[in-house]
Specification:
mainly alpha; about 50% helix
Length: about 120
């Protein structure tokens, strides 16, 4: 079952409908309880945000974009930067975006916010 399928099923239940048949469920069914209806509608709204939010494609060559940095990778980044590598070369070497490299260098004090490296 996909998230879209789950959203559809929950939406039908929130309307008091049987997801298999589409028929109205009996009045004594718990889905007709106001608290259950609210809970189901909240779940549908939460899934709306998840299902409809398009995933941002990763930039070509930046397969590690968004992933956590290991201490070893941080050390390699800082050593290479200190040795003169520019942001573009570091981005390629670490399979990250230029913005990701710049942010990491800012975090470690190798760049200043008012003087970013654009090379």
């Amino acid at each position: 079952m996909t998230l879209a399928d789950a959203k559809h099923v929950l939406g039908l239940l929130a309307q008091g409908l049987d997801p298999k048949t589409g028929h109205l469920l009996p009045e004594d069914n718990p889905v007709h309880s106001p608290d259950v209806i609210r809970a189901l509608n909240m779940a549908v709204m939460a899934l709306d945000k998840t299902v409809e939010k398009p995933l941002r494609p990763k930039m070509e060559g930046a397969s590690k974009a968004g992933q956590s940095w290991s201490p070893e990778e941080d050390e390699q980044l800082l050593s290479a930067f200190d040795a003169g590598s520019d942001v573009s070369a570091l981005a390629k070497a670490h399979e990250r975006t230029r913005g990701g490299i710049t942010s990491r260098l800012l975090r470690h004090g190798r760049l200043q916010a008012d003087r970013r490296e654009d090379a």
